[in-house]
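so the lab meeting is tmrw and i was supposed to have these ready like two days ago... anyway. pasting both below. for each one the top line is the aa sequence and the line under it is the structure tokens. i havent really looked at them closely yet so no promises
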Amino acid sequence: MNLPELGVKRPVLTIVVFFAILIVGIFSLLNLPLDLLPNMSMPSISIITNYPGASPVDVEEKVTKVIENNVATVPNIDKINSISKENVSAIAIQFNWGTNLAEAANDLRDKLDMVRDELPTGANQPIIFKFDISMIPVMFMGVEANQSYDDLTNIVDKQILDPLKRVPGVGTAFAFGGKERQINIILNRTRLESYNIPVSQIMNILKANNMNMPGGPITIGKKNYQIRVPGEFKNTDEIRNLVIGANRMGTPIYLRNIAQVKNGFKEQTWSVRVNQKRGVMIWVQKQSGANAVAVSKAVRKKLKEIQKVLPSDVKMQIVMDSSIFIKRSIGRLASTILWGGLLVFLVVLFFLRNIKGSLIVAMTIPFSLIIAFIFLYLAGYSINIISLAGLAVAIGMVVDNAIVAFENVFRHRYELHREAGEAAVFGTAEIGNAIMASTLTTIAIFLPIIFIKGIVGVMFKEMGWDIIIVLAASLFAALFFTPMLSSLLLKEARIKIPTTKVFRIISEKVGVGFDKFSLFYEKLLNWAIHHRGRTILYGILVFAVSLVLLNFIHKEFLPPTDQGQVQGTIETPPGTDLAVLTHIMHQAESLAVKDVPERQNIIIRSGSSPFSGIALAMGQKEGQNYGRLMMQLVPKKDRKRSDREIAHDLAEKIQKIPGVSDVDFAQQDAFAQMAGGGKPISIEIYGYNLTVTDSLAQLIKQKMEHIPGITGIEISRKKGQPELWVNVDRHKASALGLTIASISTTLRTQVFGSTATLYRKGGNEYDIYLRLKKSEREGMNNLNNIFVTSVTGKHIPLSSFATISEKAGPVELDRKNQERIIKVEANIYGRKLGDVTTDLKAQLSKIKIPKGVEIKLAGTIEQQRSSFTALLWALIVGILLVYLVMAAQFESFIDPMIIMFSVPFAIIGVLWALFITGQSLNIMSMLGMVMLVGIVVNNAIVLIDYINILRGRGKNVIDAILEGGKTRLRPVFMTALTTIFGLLPMALSRGEGSEIWVPLAVSVIGGLLVSTLITLIFVPTLYGVVETRLKGRRSFHRLEEL
């Protein structure tokens, strides 16, 4: 008993199966998380090491190189990139795709444990950081305060962050900005000298007198006791009254005699303003796999509870919420699926002119979607714009099998006058092999997409599985549910056409129009067979001429998306004081408030955040001379300008603020952040001679300035970081009993400061921080008079053994694969990446590259090249798989070759569609090309399969072609139009996130439209040529009669 027969003979079983699947599907749908993108992990691990107070050169030499040399031997490393900046080293290690990152991280930890002793004193423990898409914050918020500002950091930490971290689905929450408490020990240099007390002695005494030590067990009588010696500081008076030495008379010297002890704050290296008020910034990250929308909703609910217990002057504001964009994007895409489904139903209805038949076909849509939701749930996937885009593409294809099956059942029932059950079984079985082959060809084209390596595979693997599962479900429905429903609903002896006036008018016009087209098609096909040479020549000419369109279609990696946010970095000259930078950022804030009426909220941050290493690893610009501005905009429908237009206009105005050296407001969406951030254009220059590479970088920058569309050109290796070099005379220092280590440590503690120990109170920990008072550590004279204690206890001023010179060091040092590189980077505005790349390559070809120097294009250009290459290979492999499936189906190597000629016409259809609509050739439109290979051959399969059936029944070639073309015209048109109309809402969509999926829909619609029209003529004509010439059959005798 085959599947159609089982469905017809066991209708109750069939209905039970359907409802069982429906129940499981609804459960799966309700439990699927919502997110913007699939949960993706890049094969990359970053190592962040903070080295406070160190210059970029020191960071590179003492931290970056040391770590790179040790981790380079870890298996499966593809490349190593590093950035060394003031205070921080960020090393990004990219592994080969498919590498087990958990094992790689363990290997890295082992290497870092081995290198820990080689790192300098003062460098923090290296942190391993693995980035995935879930680490992009789901929410940014600001907390502002007036009277409570001094204690705002503690309020945020205890009363806001702790409750937020307990919200289900929240991975973590960070805060920065505000004041951080610290016990400041402000040393008096004059008194230190007079008492002859070295700073190292104070550090050691503070550590030794601030600890709780266990004394071990003791038995007294019949009881056992644990001895404890509580010795931690309980208040600042205990610190002030700490004995740190004695004078010659034996009189104790207290810490209060040589220093002020204050319960104060850390010196701020950054500041935050929220909606023009000083405050603290909070970002919330969700757990991997958690529902972003649900997390956001739960956080908002918790914030309302938290606000009630906060001081009256402390206010919280949500500045950015990614769930808003997610909900709008998902909602927009879901609506395109619903509208697509409705249009598909109407197409089927007006073609079949039978409501029951239309409902039978349309039932395939919910069934297939339900199966898809079950698969997503079981596979641990989410509902996101990629998975939904796959379902939107499939919405028109899922009915194809049911249309072909039902149309044949309908023909057997009302044209061949079989009984309903017999027509259902026989009609479905007759075309069962054809629709199975057509489904397998479509599935075959998605298999290479699943196994593609690189970012394309990561992005589209989920979509590929979605469509495969949906198509398999539609095949099962066509062979199982469709015949069962047909046997139950087609029992009337006559076709009942709905009597609604509107439907009747439209239906009659559709019917008359199609009948006319059918007659025209039959004549045209007859002419084509009679003039087969010219027909084939015309087809080849159309294809060749259409390829010229490639020169007029813009090319880019991904279409930019409008997420309703503006984020930008403002750079000032190296060495800019925080107060100066803050003043500049206030001016930028005022400009944004004045010139961007579309804003909802605004946050500015001045200086380097505590997470600068992570930001560097994610491709952002960080440093003491950088500020950052972020704005949430009103919904897309409520503004005339895109987020990129707003950012571009604002950046031009901020650039004119005195003291601003560079502005980077290039909008990065989630895709760009996932791929590592950075600017779209990046030219890497390799070479050992720094003078030569610096000159070459300047020359490339000059060439780029003349290319339209390139903005924000920046050379990575900047100079101008003010440095004071302490040049120690080693002979003098040695004679005085001083070492380089003691000199450096003393300088660092007295000028920059050092943490001696920790002060604990009320569950909080604060640094006990030593440094000279401000008036004794600023200025060249004070620096020269800083004393260093020798091994004999003598205090020696710095000027006695060293000279100080002022120099300009690098701001940032970049390395790739353990070699220094210099990068020339730029943004793009107003032009497509492909067009700019063409002009850039032309300019670079005119430059004479010095010997020993190499340049490479990187950034988004490299991503675009590798992605296009991956999709091209997927296309080639897909074509081969489709051909093999058809060869197995037809038991022939020639018939599949004929059918494959429909593919080139699909490609030219894509080119024409992209050209007419102004869409670019990007990875989404290329994905549409790949999909088309599996879609367009289906119509040709159904056509050729039926022609072969007629040949098997004794008809000659010409009769079989003409009858087959005429008989299969309706189902071919219906399947093509259902797919086209199913995608039409997607192609016309203009809401949030639509920029991503519109090129995909446009390319599939264009390719299918052109290929269907041409395939109906070209493929049967080519079939006739092959049958008569290559197969040696003489069946064209009727041509002489026509």
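ok protien two:
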Amino acid sequence: MMRLNKLVVLVLAFFCCHLTVIAQQVTGKVTANDGTPLLGVNISVKETKTGTISESNGAFQIAASPGNTLVFSYIGFATYEVTLGNEKNVDVTLKEDAQSLTEVVVTALGVQRESKKLGYSVTAVNTDQLTQNRTTNVMESLEGRVAGLNITPPAAGAGSSMQIRLRGQAAFAGANNAPLIVINGLPIDQGARGVNGLGTPRDLGDNLSNVNPDDIESMTVLKGATAAAIYGARAANGAIIITTKSGRKNQGIGVEYSSNYSTQHALNFFDFQTEYGQGTGGKRPTSGANAATTGHFAWGERLDGVPTPIFDGSLQPYSANPDNLFGFLQTGTDFTNTIAMSGGGANGSFRASFSNTDAEGITPNNEYNRKIANVGINHNISKKLKLQLNINYTNEQQVNPPQIGTQGPGAVNFFTRLATSIPLSALKNSAIAANGTETLTSGFQGTLLNPYYALAVGQRYETNRDRFLSTATLRYDLTDWLYVQGRYNYDFALTFTESHDPGGIGTSVPTNADGTFKGGYNLSESKGTDVNADFLVGGGKEFGKFSVDANVGGNTWRVKNNGFNQSSSNFIVRDLYSIGNGSVRNQGYGFSQYRVNSLYGWAELGYNNLLYLNFTGRQDWFSVLNPEDNSELYQSVSGSFIFSELMKNQTWLSYGKLRASWAEVGSSNGVNPYDGVLTYGISQNQFQGQTTAGISGNSAPNRFLRPFSVEEKEIGIELRMFGNRVTLDVSAFDKITTDQVLDVQLSNTSGYNSSKENLGSLKNSGLEFLVEVKPIQTPNFSWTSSWNHAFLATKVLSVGAPSEIIVLNWGATGNEFIGQLRYVEGLPMNQVYARTYLKNEEGQILLTDQGRLIPTTDYVSFGSSIPKHTGGWNNAFTYKNLSINIHFDYKLGGVVISSTALNANRQGHSKQSLVGRREGEKGVVFPGVYRSNEQPNTTAVDPATFYADYRNNQMGDIVTFKSDFVKLRNVSISYNLTDLMRKSNVLGFIKGLSVTASCRNAALLYKDIPDLDPEAIQSSGDFRSGYENTSLPTTRNFNFSLNAKF
């Protein structure tokens, strides 16, 4: 017996020793691609099913044998496997998986939901795209990356705004067509303070400039009405949901630093003629006085280099200087630095960051500075009570944003209309005349300003904006499936603007004996307060194969705005910028406030991970509407069918979903406070010593106004195939907007000029595609290619009786007196109208007996300015720690009238204007027939007269082009140095390090419009849709960035 016991002990000892050899302890560390330690990573041994999770510093320990396979899995990252040899230490770097990241998305009201349960189109943005090709406005990085999201950055200087449209333009021009922006649960309007067709304004940016790309945790685009229906009236144009970072639990203290430096170089697409110089009637200037009134005409003699008088009386070679504009412009720069500290323990996490941006535009003295402080806190006060706090403070300073337009003192307007025979050095050195005023260069006094004069005498426009955003959320878990939540949002903005208009500038309204301006000074201040408070009661529970998720809540939204402005002009003492120095003074004050109260709810019913049905409803009560009828009900229903659950034996299909939705939402855009009641104002005039008052404005109140309505239907399919190597997402939608709020002209006998009414109906319908393919996926090399495309068809269903047309005259918005923007029943939206050639029944162009053009009496359509096709193609390559990204995008199917082309033809600068004045030509003999006898034209017309007729007759034929383009938008290359840092004895304290170099607007591969980049034609508003109005040249940006974690 004793011997048997000894034998058993020896056998057990042998096996224990053997197991010790086989099941050794393996240790290691798990980090993200940027070097951040990952807490809670699941590590398992594939053969034995044993497992563990990583600690806060990423460390782990697990028993495994040589030849075993360790499997590392973590939400948001690609699963990674490693086969063990004899090593006892294994360090693993997990890479983010874009597919995994989209499994859970942030939807309306900040609620996280599984994407498979959604019956509508939602796109989760890869936030790396926001920092790889950084610009001052975070949305610019998304051009061509999301199907149905149309982004156009106006070429309007540092810190300018974006035009953002989701699935077209829901309302007529003039209304707010931008999607709702929601930051940490706080809804804000885009608030574009940009060029919208009024005079020659400056672009002052938008509310998205408050967001630092380094602070963004997630961004979700809710395209359709169903996705955003729970936001009610504010989200008729869709919504973009942004969540900022707030640290991670149990990660310890970490510091992150990022630095980005970029240069912007103006792109020269101008190809003006360089054969003829300044002058009129085929003659060059003969004196300085003659030259001073013809500087912007190039109808002179052939350039020959002979010294010729210019505007300042000096003799200069009669030669071409085609790059004057680009000699005046400078290289723009943008330097952004962000430092952040984050940490987390068992009961919460935090992140605090500060960023500073210093930028200079491509026009001299255009500066932009932005400082952003951001704090995010998550804290478990108790096991059931949780606090989330987000605070954002932004200060923006914008100095001398350039003026845009052909009827004002913008630099582009000046140089593109200037004869190339005038050298840049003379414009700079002779800008100031002997009497201290602007030296006259052109007969267009007041329309064209030598920008060197403005620089020399200190013309200045400066705006300072402070913005404070805060969100506080308390959530209490009543049970493990039921919670109650309260949230308070506060948004405050203060904007101060000051402008100096120096004396001596040539003006069309002369105030001095010499016809120059005496100087002016303007001050303005505006305050806006936006308060949102909401509550939510929600929960979810499973009942066998069935699941229910339901939420009910309410919201109150209060807005208060006030502001004042003071101005003085006709200075008594020149260049003394004071309100009291002006002999003409004006002041004004404005105030408005309104409120919207809401109740809402939604419910989700699920069956067996196969079927999901969602319902939403929201009732809004508006203070701006008639109290007797001031509420609207918005509702939606959507469903999804995960048909891949029924096809699990089909190995080629990883995931398949059909979805469908219907929604009815609306918007009170266009209904302003007090539109339904009479308002009164106090006049500065007095009668018999008493202050007088009267009815304010010329618009008759309409107490029966109501929000316009948007009804949208959508269907779609999502497929992931061949082990998630191929992804397909297709959506079709149909959206109709009715009862839009429009201004209607009234007879003057009524005592008013206009009134607002609910009129008009518009339709947007389209298809959206996303195709993503991963042709190569190996441990060291991968290639992911994705293509998104959107087709958009628009139609005007009604503009209201009795008219079938709404006309927006560009001539009233600071343009070169050509064309109209129209909404015509039965045609696509945003029709570009102008006169055209008068023709006979055979289609021949009719001319006068003098060989001159005859315009049609009526305006005709040249097409819609809205592109029918938009999209992008992205290719991402990774080799070990090296990443390369190449992105193309395009817009096709729109038209544009070019003010630059109009002036270039009329003033003799374009190559087209050479026809009729080269050697052997006596004028333009236009191919047409005489109206009087329909015989072929043989009469030559002086070119200056011929091309002026297009402008004088409002004819758009030779200045209307396709706005199509195809661009190589971005090229970037990144390298992750984290592995090198870990191996370094000196730099081991650096937990993550990466560097990136990129180029934005790398190449314009195709365009139709001459001399311009088609993207330089847009603005943040819709009034100038389809009208190019001498914006700044677009730029090619070179970016260099560094990101380090400690």
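from a quick look at the 2nd one: Residues 1-22, 811-815 have pLDDT under 50 and may be disordered. The first strand starts at residue 24 and ends at 32. will dig more after coffe
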